[in-house]
Amino acid sequence: MAKNTGFKKRFPHTTIFFVIAIAIAIPLTVWSLNNVSTNLSQEAAIGGKQSGSSSLSLMMVNDNNRNGLPNYRDTITFNVITTQTDYPYVNVVCYQNSKLVYSASAGFYNSYPWPGTRNIPLYSPNWTSGGADCTATLYNASQPKKPYVNLDFYVSP
Q1: How far is CA 133 from CA 39, 117, 136, in A?
Q2: What separation in angstroms does the CA of 86 have from each of 4, 82, 108, 121, 140?
C-alpha cells in the first residue's frame, strides 16, 4: 500500500492560514468598496466630479488705459468652463516681491449668492501701487487643495 503524501498531510497548517486569510480579506474588501461608494456619493452631493476638463481665461471688465491687459486699478473677471464640478470657484492671489498684497475668491456658478464678487479689482489696502505677479486657481470649494487649473498673469503698474 502506497504511503499517503497528500497536500493536507504535507501542509497541515495551510488550510487554517487560508481560512484566516479569507476571513480577513472579505471584510476588508467590503469595507473598501463601501468607503469608495460613500466618498463618491458625497462628492456627487456637493458637486464634486473628478474627471472631465476645465479651462480658465482672464477677461477685462474695466480697462482704464484700454490696452487689453491687466493693470493696477483695473477690474478683471474670468471665463470659467469646467465639467469637473457643478460649483466652480476661482481664487486670485497677487504678490509683490513675495509679499501677499491681494487675495479674493468667488463662485462661478449660476446660484452663487454674491455674483458681483466675480469682478475682481486689482488693488487693495495692501496693494497701493505697482505691478504684481498673480495666480488665479479654479477649484471646487469642497476640495480647495486639488485645483483644476492655475492661470498665472502679471498686473502691470
Answers
A1: 37, 20, 10
A2: 67, 8, 9, 25, 8
CA 95 – CA 80 distance, rounded (Å)? 23
94 close to 104: Cβ distance less than 8 angstroms: no
20-75 tens-digit pLDDT: 544 554 544 443 333 333 333 333 333 444 468 999 999 999 999 999 999 999 99
Kindly state the cell numbers that stand for 102.
Answer: 491681494
Compute the average pLDDT of residues 126-145.
Answer: 93
- Between strands 75-82 and 120-121, the pairing is antiparallel
Q: What is the CATH number of domain 54-155?
A: 2.60.40
